[in-house]
Write a structure and sequence with these properties.
159 residues, alpha/beta, Alpha/beta knot, 5 helices, 6 strands
Length: 159
């Protein structure tokens, strides 16, 4: 796949489950996407489960660590931010992604805070779930769905 310049960014806000982060790291490595991890993390990045999920790809992933969400947001252009949450009605398919955008996902147990969703309501999207008995998607799956839509919009070959 040809490189997208600048690359997309996946941001995990206070991730809690090492295998999710490891799987997303592998996704980022495979697509030349930058992974941003916003502290506090619910695990050590030396955690054996995290490395196992990322296997031997961890060294090929560009990872940026942030001390907290406020610090991350202060450094960004608001027009490049896309917040993903099950708490909002607008589908991610309505978003128009551009290289360099940030796809932001909240922690597994709580998602993105209501305060942030309210503050950035025009920048919030969700992945529709059609079965009311299913409350959410796995974080790694959600990141993959949205990232590949962003890549598709750039006419990137996805094979």
């Amino acid at each position: 796949m040809p490189r997208i310049t600048p690359p997309f960014n996946i941001v995990l806000v206070e991730p809690e489950i090492p295998p999710n982060t490891g799987s997303i790291a592998r996704l980022c490595g495979a697509t030349d996407t930058i992974l941003h991890l916003v502290r506090p993390l619910g695990f050590s990045t030396d955690d054996k489960h995290l490395k196992r999920a990322g296997l031997d790809y961890w060294q090929f992933v560009k990872i940026v660590y942030w001390d907290n969400l406020d610090r991350f947001l202060e450094e960004q252009d608001e027009r490049k931010l896309f917040f993903l949450s099950k708490k909002v009605p607008r589908s991610y398919t309505e978003a128009r992604f551009q290289p360099g955008d940030y796809l932001i996902f909240g922690k597994e147990t709580k998602g993105i805070s209501e305060n942030i969703l309210s503050l950035y309501q025009e920048r919030c999207y969700s992945i529709p779930i059609f079965n009311a008995n299913i409350r959410s998607l796995n974080l790694a799956m959600a990141a993959g769905i949205v990232l590949f839509e962003a890549l598709r919009q750039q006419n990137s070959p996805v094979s």
